[in-house]
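re: ur question from earlier - yeah i can do the single chain one, its not a big deal. heres the input i used so u can compare w yours
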Amino acid sequence: MPRNDPLRNFRFRIELDGITQAAFSEASGFDVTTEPIDYRTGTEPTHVRKLPGLTKYGNVTLKWGITDSKEIFEWHQQIVGGEIVRKTVRIVVIDEAGNDKARFTILEAWPTKYDPMDLNAKGNEVAIETLELVNEGVKREA
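and the output i got, formated as tokens:
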């Protein structure tokens, strides 16, 4: 019987609608939380029932090494200018052989924060850009 090892968290790719961006180094925050509502009527036992309330989707943070591409910056500038452009974001986890194994789709995403980079003349690290996306849904498709 073949082994079913867990997937590695460093093998992934990100697909943004209509944006061809260099590889991303980090993706985080695509969590989903459903708030509980405490409920009780006067004729029930003396404990509180829990009902599902609103579902909230965490902001997704993407990080990548800066390149000469300005597509993501221009997307954020559209938001700053008052034009809401929503995109679908796909985060695809890849196995050791390079095959797509897990796919998370972030729905109706748009940038809420853009951080171009921190500079330090004493360092030798790659300059990292950061984009924070709000969204209206997370699905696991594979």
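Residues 18 and 38 are 43 Å apart (CA to CA). not sure if urs matches, ping me
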